[in-house]
Amino acid sequence: MTSAKFDVVGIGNAIVDVIAHADDAFHAREGLVKGTMTLVDAPRAEALYQLMGPAVEISGGSVGNTMAGLASLGGTGAYIGKVRDDFLGQVYRHDITAVGIRFETPAATSGPGTARCLILVTPDGQRTMNTYLGACADLGPADIDPDVIVAAQITYLEGYLFDPPQAQEAFRKAAAIAHAGGRKVALSLSDPFCVGRHREAFRDLVDGHVDILFANEAEICSLYETADFATAAARVRGHVALAALTRSAAGSVILADDAEHTVAAAPVARVVDSTGAGDLYAAGFLYGLTRELPLPTCGGIGSLCAAEIISHVGARPETALSRLVAEAGLA
Q1: What angle, 0 to 180 degrees and rounded to 10, lies between the N-to-C axes of helices 165-180 and 199-209?
Q2: 262 pLDDT tier (thresholds 50, 70, 90)
């Protein structure tokens, strides 16, 4: 690919995870269903935060996790996402820039606060999530920096951000700028329910604006309204140049032109927390792709990164991914 300042620029929901321990009695009192994710409004988010015990704040968001993984691999990246000029906004900006990712999207000075996911961990390891989208849902076309887009080999779009109409406009603007500059566009479908809400819009985006598609089995099946993975995989051919489809323990399938590559999942001693597996697979795959490595190698790096992330709690790497890749002889 043409020389670029960044390997990848990610566009996504800038969310801070606020993690605290809680017992089953707390869940019962607050009417929380253990192990689920619920969207909450600002008053509920504030009330729940006040009731939580001592907490740890860790920056998250799907594409944010991918960009952190890319940095851990030794890649270069930038991030576009919306935070508010509040404490959690400062936390998010600090965390993502501290790992080496450029993040210069101006903070909102009015309106909703920075997005947060209030995560309550019970003694049995279950994570109950209450998400307030806040400022991140206000990202729009004006937040897309053309100079950053054309400076990156690949622009990576987060499907979770697709609900607000202005975010869809931002995606199309970014894709147009990238393609005009001879760059590539990647999309993660992110969530089968999000795909279900916007199926036709996602199909249009994949057909006309995306070069590289990431999806898990449930997401690609939702996109093409089938329960059969093979049918969905066959349907995506011809609509996008490259598709990386993940299947949890069954590994991944990579489709490009007339070729199909099946990549095994990397072994892991024990699955502790599956959060972020797809995000880190994308980080590894994009890292390999921006170095023009063979597609099976890109998938192998993705699998290795996913295995690292599911071996511990949290969706940011605890071990330098660059070292794991070197030890595995993948790059």
Answers
A1: 10
A2: very high
Stretch 207-212: mean pLDDT, rounded?
Answer: 93
Rounded Cα gap, residues 162 and 149, in angstroms: 19
CA distance 15 to 190: 15
Cα–Cα–Cα angle for 297, 210, 285, rounded to 5 degrees: 20
Q: What is the DSSP letter of 143?
A: G
Cα-only R_g, the chain: 19
Q: How many CB atoms lie within 10 A of CB 4?
A: 18
0.85 exceeded by pTM: yes
Strands 212-216 and 56-59: unpaired
Taken as a whole, the chain contains a residue count of 331
* Ordered DSSP codes for 83-132: -BSSHHHHHHHHHHHHTTEEE-PPPBSSSSPPEEEEEEE-TT--EEEEEE
Query: Is 83 inside a domain boundary?
Result: yes
* Torsion sign (Cα): 314, 315, 321, 327: positive
Quote the number of domains for the chain.
1
Helix axes 277-290, 62-73, angle to 10 degrees: 50
Residue 331: pLDDT band (50, 70, 90) is confident
In a domain, 124, yes or no: no
- Which two structure tokens, joined as six digits, stand for 71? 């940095």
Distance of alpha carbon 85 from its chain centroid, rounded?
23
Give me the CATH number covering residue 311. 3.40.1190.20
Residue 1 lies in a domain: no
Average pLDDT, the chain: 93
Q: Print the domain residue range for 241.
A: 6-13+61-111+137-327
